[in-house]
TrEMBL record:
This is Preprotein translocase subunit YajC. The lineage of its organism: Bacteria, Bacillati, Actinomycetota, Actinomycetes, Kitasatosporales. Residues 119-132 have a biased composition (Basic and acidic residues). It comes from the Bacteria. Belongs to the YajC family. It comes from Kitasatospora purpeofusca. Residues 110-140 are annotated as: Disordered. Keywords: Cell membrane, Membrane, Protein transport, Translocation, Transmembrane, Transmembrane helix, Transport.
Amino acid sequence: MNLIILLLPILAIVLMFRSQKKRQQQMQQMQTALEPGAGVRTIGGLYARVKAVNEETVELEIAPGVVGYFTKSAIAAVMDPADYDAIINGRPAEDEPVDAADAVDAEIEPAAAEPLSFTKDDAAKGDAKAEAEGGAPASK
């Protein structure tokens, strides 16, 4: 009985170190698999495309013409091209049906008859109009 009490914590410690080592090996493999053109997600949740891979750093294109420099350890995941494209461009997966009603909702509504204005005179007119309709006037 005393032997089990002594061996159980030792076994738990060995298993923890083993799983940590496995995670480190997976992270090392992912970092060595980085190549220009791959879509990645950083530990901060930033999605970008790899421009260049150096010894310790990675150049990521965050937006067209915008390049940031990150350490390799800041890369959380290398993404599949289809997944990266779906996240960045907002495209639905190929197996999701697109309803015609969704397409109608996506149409742009016509602009309001009165253009927006930010002058003081127009604000006073808007206050008078709001009071006439029973609404509260805008704060000044």
